[in-house]
């Protein structure tokens, strides 16, 4: 009897010890989470996009960890947990990204992935994310196909997609420049460039029936770098306006070459991602270019006086020595969405939330971000809409800083399709339900 | 008429740029039988060095026009330093190996040099617009053209004439031809083949770097800069005939003009046209248009 009692006592003690260790382990897991942040850290997209993206994420993550974000986000951590960021390089192609994503989830066991710039990366990763079932927030990539081709459970996107860029561009052109009756385009020859042109062209036909698209559209290879012949062809084209969704180093090279050849004096040019070039080119950026920044970010919201925006601009400039461009805002916004979701989920759960609870809190979330309000309104609460903005590039010689004039904001419900409607169908159908 | 003039000038400008880069590649192949993938890195290093030096001298108060002097400085510096290091430390130990092994070694060198660029220059693109801005533009065929772009045609002509003269009218050229014809026999006749090799490799590297340095003021010099050009250069060299300098000239002209016509008349074919031309040439002339005749050893 005594021996049985002794055995039982040992088993009980062992069980208590194991439970204690397990609980201690669980408690420790709640103190820290790991977040992977992929962006271009090498290659032509690193300077204009990848590095500002990484910096934006870094600034916001570290501020959250220290509880130094402005109110109402000044609580420490993600549901109290300190985030350990893992910065990974997005360059190298889609196959590499898929392998890297598997590595992050299966070997490094990250709690969330927040990032991705290229539409190619997001399109390739979408099915893999669903397979591996890890919370993933796409921050910049623009292709609408991510949520239009299939329903997604584990993927969220915290900014508007490419349709908004091009619908807003067409709205801006038709209202500010009614004399524009014909247009051509130069876009990179892959999903991003082709989708952008398609959406812009369809919207122009909607908003200005009878306007004429050129038959000689330019679709050079991404990262081509030299556009001598293309600039000649655009200059000879009779169209009034040139549309371009160029980004990365291609955008800057094109502006350099086009500016010296007088392209921007001869034609109206709309760059849907042109905002990223403003700060980098400085006074070399010609005045009067129609600029987008893939939403209300960067140079186009420089003068927006909200506590969060003023904090973000100051903190970023103090730390990195330059003003934050669009990608910095967009990555910061993705990280902020994750923090809010973790905090809200913890409140609802009464303790540190699991992934399902975080995703539930993120679904349909509405929040004030650094430069705009975000509404996760589409794709079953997984795809954000925000207001959109365009303006004209305008260098301020007095301050020695680039800026924008004639800035016009568009409601998110004006430039994004309603929930459940594919972008192309929406535009082709006359953009029914748009609230402008 | 405006269109015709524009296509012609666009084609010539692009051909000139391709020729300057590709002639270095074909020179190295012709003499040393090395398909040098690292040539793209010479181009990228030349661009970075030029952009950096132009920025430095511009910040020291030099005029925009004066900054152009940094282009040959960068090309010569990169060619001499990188060319000599690679030839002396790597290639000279591999000449007895199979050509495929040497190609792989130059590919590895290319990757290393690409990463070295990141370490030395960082990921931020460099802008060196001063020479391009200094020369301004001129209206030809109803549109503005870069004088700097047109000057590239003159540079390519100067390179072509210089190479022709060096090969056909100098002692060095005769030595080179002897080595091309038969390396072993040249060696037995007392020609210092090792010295011919390093001189050839350095000149080839300088030409690659010159292409990059001259293009740098017109573009955003960014990581990955040398990848695109090496593919196009191979196309030029294959069309012209590997190892043939006149072939590189004609190959560059064919590719440049075909691309310009496509961009202006059939823009949807622009990506395809260079490789289509290459395929057609290879169907009818598998060795390229101007492949040098090979002596058969018995």
Summarize the structure.
Chain A is α/β, with parallel strands linked by helices and 436 residues long. Chain A has helices at 2-31, 46-66, 94-107, 119-132, 145-148, 162-176, 191-207, 228-236, 248-260, 263-266, 275-281, 307-320, 326-349, 355-362, 412-415, 423-428; strands spanning 32-39, 82-89, 112-115, 136-138, 155-157, 182-185, 212-213, 241-244, 268-271, 290-292, 366-368, 373-378, 383-385, 388-396, 401-410. In chain A, the strands form three sheets. A seven-stranded mixed sheet of chain A has the order 7-6-8-9-10-14-15.
Jot down its keywords.
heterodimer, A: 436 residues, alpha/beta, Rossmann fold, seven-stranded mixed β-sheet, five-stranded parallel β-sheet, 16 helices, 15 strands, globular, B: 298 residues, mainly alpha, two-stranded antiparallel ribbon, 2 strands, 72% helix
What does this protein look like?
The complex is a heterodimer of chains A (436) and B (298). By secondary structure, chain A is of the alpha/beta class. Chain A folds into 2 domains: 210 residues, Rossmann fold, CATH 3.40.50.2300; 183 residues, 3-Layer(aba) Sandwich (Rossmann fold), CATH 3.40.50. Chain A contains 16 helices and 15 strands. A 7-stranded mixed β-sheet of chain A has the order 7-6-8-9-10-14-15. A 5-stranded parallel β-sheet of chain A has the order 2-1-3-4-5, sandwiched between helices. In chain A, strands 11-12-13 form a 3-stranded antiparallel β-sheet, with no helix packed on it. In chain A, α3 runs parallel beside α4, α6 runs parallel beside α7 and α13 crosses α14. The longest helix of chain A has 30 residues. The termini of chain A are far apart. About 4% of the residues of chain A have low confidence. Chain B is mainly alpha-helical and 298 residues long. Chain B has one domain. Helices cover 72% and strands 3% of the residues of chain B. Chain B is built from 12 helices and 2 strands. Chain B has a two-stranded antiparallel sheet. In chain B, a hairpin with a 2-residue loop joins β1 and β2. At the A-B interface, α2, α8 and α9 of A face α1, β2, α10 and α11 of B.
């Amino acid at each position: 009897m005594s021996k049985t009692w002794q055995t039982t006592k040992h088993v009980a003690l062992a069980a208590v010890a194991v439970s204690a260790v397990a609980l201690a382990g669980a408690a420790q897991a709640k103190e820290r989470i790991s977040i992977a942040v992929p962006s271009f850290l090498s290659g032509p997209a690193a300077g204009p996009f990848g590095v500002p993206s990484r910096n934006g994420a870094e600034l916001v993550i570290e501020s959250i960890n220290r509880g130094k974000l402005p109110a109402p986000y000044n609580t420490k951590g993600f549901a109290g947990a300190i985030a350990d960021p893992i910065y990974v390089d997005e360059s190298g192609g889609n196959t590499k990204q898929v392998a890297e994503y598997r590595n992050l989830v299966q070997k490094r066991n990250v709690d969330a992935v927040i990032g991705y710039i290229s539409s190619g990366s997001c399109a390739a990763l979408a099915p893999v994310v669903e397979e591996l079932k890890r919370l993933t927030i796409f921050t910049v990539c623009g292709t609408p196909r991510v949520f239009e081709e299939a329903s997604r459970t584990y993927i969220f996107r915290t900014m508007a997609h490419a349709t908004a860029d091009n619908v807003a561009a067409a709205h801006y052109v038709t209202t500010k420049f009614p004399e524009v009756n014909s247009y051509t385009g130069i876009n990179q020859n892959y999903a991003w460039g082709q989708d952008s042109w398609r959406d812009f062209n369809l919207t122009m036909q909607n908003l200005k029936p009878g306007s004429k698209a050129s038959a000689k559209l330019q679709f050079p290879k991404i990262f081509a770098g030299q556009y001598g012949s293309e600039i000649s062809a655009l200059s000879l084209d009779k169209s009034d306006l040139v549309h371009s969704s160029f980004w990365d180093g291609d955008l800057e090279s094109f502006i350099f070459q086009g500016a010296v050849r007088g392209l921007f004096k001869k034609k109206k040019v709309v760059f849907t991602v042109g905002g990223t070039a403003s700060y980098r080119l400085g006074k070399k950026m010609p005045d009067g270019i129609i600029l987008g920044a893939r939403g209300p970010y960067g140079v186009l919201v420089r003068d927006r006086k909200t506590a969060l925006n003023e904090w973000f601009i100051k903190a970023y400039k103090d730390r990195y020595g330059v003003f934050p461009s669009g990608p910095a805002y967009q990555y910061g916004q993705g990280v902020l969405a994750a923090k809010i979701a973790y905090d809200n989920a913890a409140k609802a759960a009464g303790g540190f939330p699991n992934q399902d609870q975080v995703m539930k809190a993120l679904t349909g979330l509405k929040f004030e971000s650094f430069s705009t309000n975000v509404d996760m309104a589409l794709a079953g609460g997984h795809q954000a809409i925000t207001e959109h903005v365009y303006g004209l590039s305008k260098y301020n010689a007095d301050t020695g800083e680039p800026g924008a004039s004639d800035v016009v904001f568009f409601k998110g419900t004006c430039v994004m399709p309603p929930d459940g409607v594919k972008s192309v169908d929406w535009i082709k159908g006359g953009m029914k339900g748009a609230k402008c | 008429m405006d269109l015709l003039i524009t296509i012609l000038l666009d084609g010539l400008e692009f051909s000139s740029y391709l020729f300057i880069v590709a002639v270095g590649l074909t020179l190295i192949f012709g003499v040393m039988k090395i398909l040098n993938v690292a040539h793209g890195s010479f181009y990228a290093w030349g661009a970075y060095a030029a952009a950096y030096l132009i920025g430095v001298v511009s910040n020291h108060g030099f005029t925009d026009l004066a900054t152009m002097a940094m282009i040959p400085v960068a090309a010569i510096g990169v060619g001499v330093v990188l060319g000599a290091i690679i030839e002396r430390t790597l290639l000279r130990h591999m000449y007895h190996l199979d050509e495929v092994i040497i190609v792989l070694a130059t590919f590895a060198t290319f990757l290393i040099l690409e990463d070295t660029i990141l370490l030395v220059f960082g990921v931020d693109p460099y802008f060196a617009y001063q020479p391009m801005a200094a020369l301004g533009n001129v209206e030809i065929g109803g549109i503005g053209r870069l004088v700097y772009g047109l000057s590239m045609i003159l540079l390519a002509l100067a390179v072509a004439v210089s190479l022709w003269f060096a090969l056909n009218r100098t002692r060095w050229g005769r030595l080179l031809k002897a080595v091309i014809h038969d390396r072993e026999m040249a060696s037995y006749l007392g020609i210092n083949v090792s010295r011919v090799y390093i001189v050839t490799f350095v000149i080839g590297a300088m030409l690659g770097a010159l292409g990059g340095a001259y293009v740098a003021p017109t573009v955003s010099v960014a990581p990955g800069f040398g990848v695109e050009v090496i593919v196009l250069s191979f196309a030029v060299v294959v069309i012209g005939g590997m190892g043939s300098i006149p072939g590189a000239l004609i190959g560059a002209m064919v590719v440049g003009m075909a691309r310009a016509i496509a961009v202006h008349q059939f823009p949807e074919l622009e990506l395809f046209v260079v490789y289509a031309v290459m395929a057609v040439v290879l169907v009818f002339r598998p060795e390229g248009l101007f492949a040098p005749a090979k002596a058969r050893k018995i």
